[in-house]
Task: structure prediction
Amino acid sequence: MIAQVEPLLTTRNVSGPFDYRLPESMNGVGVGSVLVVPFGRRRIVGVVVGMAEQSELPEGRLAEPVEALEAGVPPELVELGRWVGEEYCSTPARGLGLVLPPGIGTGADARRMRPLVELEVEATEEGLAATAGGGRLGLRQRAVLRALAAGPKLARQLAATAGSGRATLRRLEARGLIRSREVERRRRHNSPAVGAVRDGIELTGDQRRAVKAIASGGHRELLLHGVTGSGKTEIYLEAAREALDRGRGAIVLVPEIALTPQTMDRFRRRFGESVALLHSRMPAGARYDEWRRLRAGEARICVGPRSAVFAPVRDPGLIVIDEEHDSSYKQESDPRYDAREVARRRAAEAGAELLCGTATPRPESWHELQRLELPSRVDGRRLPPVEIVDMRGGVPGPLHERTREAFAEVSAAGGKAILLINRRGWSTHLTCRSCGHAWECPECDVSLILHRPAARRRSGAGADDAGHLRCHHCGFAEPKPESCPECSSVTIARIGAGTQRVEAELSELLAPLEIFRLDSDSAAGGRHADVLSRFERASTGVLVGTQMVAKGHDFPDVTLSVILDADGALRLPDFRSEERTFALITQLAGRSGRGEAAGRVLVQALAAGAPSIRHAARHDAAGFLAEELERRRALRYPPFSHLIEVALSSEDEERADSAAERMGELIVQRLGADQDLLGPAPLFRVRGRHRRRLLLKSEHRREAVEAVRESVAEAVGGRLLRDVAISVDVDPQ
Ligand code: ADP
Ligand code: ZN
Ligand code: ZN
Result:
């Protein structure tokens, strides 16, 4: 037999598949097998993407694989991986990389993950008889056989309980009194969930209707539009149960695991061992074993972030995308896939139902999916009233008087509040008051952000002035300046506020109330869950942070939500900024008033009249989406067209320019000049690299993707891209 092998190389200029002749000894190899193959002078890892009786190559030129590593990526995932490679203008190898079991190295000598195998021992009939009959047995031997009377045990356990070493076991086995075999032990990251308890929740009428509408069994694409607190998770749980009852599996995608531990816990409590978790914060061994549990069908449900869309769940009947508006579903490195689109593809291929849930649907989903509505919160509580606080006319400091009063009320009542400000650090930029000098990153065209040391230490004398300027794009850092390098003036203005400064203001305003800060600085190394659970356990306090604080958390005792600079995103030239602003405000509002006490929301903004802000203040998603879709139709933006972004960068500005020009020509050659190709336009410099961008807008996705893919291939093949990096983003966010 011939195996068609796609080599797992990261370069763009090699693409297979290549034929290899399988020796007899490898007759278990099939589509989805992972092999080590000779490739030129090297040995590399490859995936079998097809099988054939014969090759077009002459017999003498066919090589044999060196080794078979893994028997099994399911064939449908091999197809899905190749599709991702094509659809996102990446390479087959990079697409396939997404569907491999965790820990498969791509170099032949890379350390590989292996199952953890242990020796299991069991007494034979004779062995059991020997203990009873008091045959000639040593003390240790007798202890082992007694321990085995209750059933098989691991050799490791016997060593601990019966004090028996391997020598004892060998002697017993030689006498035919025990049998041993190797078993695979699954490594677990999380302690097993406690039993399969039900939460004891009665579904509401709305929830029941939704579940009924979902559980039809065929392939459909559904949008579950449910206001915040309408009990969407309960519906996912029921829908997953239905899928299991039909003998099928389920995939549940959640935004970021660290920010959504609650959803995961609920699945584990409900389904126990039938659930597998796959996420990057797990140790590699546990991840590998969870993957194997799914592939073996031991676990039928997978919960995880975007990469879980590639989980080897058998025969998925349901794919849920929780918080479908969340930006983390898009991968921001090559292949830049959108897990929502991949899920759609996978659901269609598998005949599964796709269920996208959110309080703030994307215009794309609103336009394209079949809608199910959950118009009210589970307990009939009202959504909190939203007040817009107009910041025009100048307000000293980041907090408006009304906002300060609202916080003071919460503090006096011993309640809880959440504040969102979508910038981390202390201030957003520094300028010299005398000469106007602005501090910028030497490698990137952006201002440096002031970061102060941890707030707890602020009280110490002198500590007040310490701090660093940091670049949020490249990590460059330098000590906070004492004076201006241009004019030596010591009056330096810190403009704008970030999470640190707001944290400090609130500490002062509300002391001794505890302030919890949640941003990627305070939660470095995945400690988000820590901060969140400390806030949850506290009886009173304020959670301050970046958009992480708005992500689906369910804290019943929060009564005030505040967002600062709510229209910050609207000042950026991005056609999605209205959509983002609407989602951010609505999601944040959704954190308030989920318990007994009524909630309240304050939105500080300069552009108080912007459509996204107006509609969010009225909790009017339908109104917002209708207007937004009209605007997009008029401007021919998605979902009425498809966008493909080609970014080129080089340390040499001229190279970046000419490569971008040439790339544009190649695309136009293929598509014709009547296409909407914008640019090349400059993007700001990052890490010393000059960047240029081309944006293709097209109604014909297939042709556009193909034209770009071919143009990139031609450019890579020619010498056009010397010292120029290229990246393609289909459906850029
Ligand atoms: P959403 O995801 O729609 O914002 P959740 O699924 O987090 O809402 O549910 C909000 C809260 O309501 C959770 O604490 C959940 O346990 C509770 N809940 C959901 N359904 C019911 C129900 N039918 N009866 C009582 N409580 C419910
Ligand atoms: Zn100066
Ligand atoms: Zn920088």
